[in-house]
């Protein structure tokens, strides 16, 4: 929300509240990840200053020439907001993927075809558990790398820390956010790390048991000081082990999550979102950003322009689909899933998991 125009924005949004639509676009020219020439498979946020392009801005002058690139960029975002009409908002979203989870390790071990059509529908294999997967040792190290890099940026670049924090309710994202942001040495006046747990920032919901969340009581017990958004149910009412979200359905809830973040009065200019590969991909689609696959533990900032327009657009929640899967370990294949001849594919859950 604009700091210098709170009254004007409040009045504007009040008028638009009953029938309004928020249109999101990515403002390019500021980050390497926005450029078509940047390869996501080799991109390293820790060696590229989060991908920030070291460039000049219209606001640059003699007073700012000795400031770091992140200090100058922050003032550029402030200026964009100051000059924009009351119905336009600019924010920087730091989209962070969780560190490696046991489900990621299992998929690599079994191969994606076999994982998708059989192993992912179980809660584990007797050695590892991947239902609402926790972090592996590698995942913990990846989150620690993000923590160390944030601290380095705070110390050397004087980066403005997030004004607000949001996190998916799945265990791997909760732990990643905690490792990444807990204990950072922030300047006085910075927003303390106390993320809001949001249902709609969870991974794309498939038949995989790693996509089912645990109950509210368990989540609260992990981090009892973290707020959970209003309306968050005790049990997971979205995952059923039978039907999966289509991309359209996931994008619908991703936009709803963004709307709630942008329409809030206290989110500030820099916003941290700790989520998942599939969900970040969905958020990027809603933001009209190029496809950019994040590795586990990676973080990318995106400068977002949100324009609230006084109209109601037709919306659809999108469809959910059922898919056939094997009832026994599939025949080994690197190309596709082949069920054993004795295991006829089904569309019913292989396990009933109550978290």
UniProtKB/TrEMBL annotation:
Origin superkingdom: Eukaryota
First and last residue of the signal peptide: 1-19
The UniProt record lists the keyword Transmembrane: no
GO molecular-function term, one example from the UniProt record: phosphatase activity
A Pfam family hit: His_Phos_1
GO CC aspect terms: cytoplasm
Keywords of this entry: Signal
Transmembrane residue ranges: none
InterPro entries, A to Z: His_Pase_superF_clade-1 (IPR013078), His_PPase_superfam (IPR029033), PGM_Phosphatase (IPR050275)
PANTHER family in the cross-refs: ANCHORED PROTEIN, PUTATIVE (AFU_ORTHOLOGUE AFUA_1G10590)-RELATED (PTHR48100:SF32), BROAD-SPECIFICITY PHOSPHATASE YOR283W-RELATED (PTHR48100)
Listed name of the protein: Histidine phosphatase superfamily
Source species: Aspergillus coremiiformis
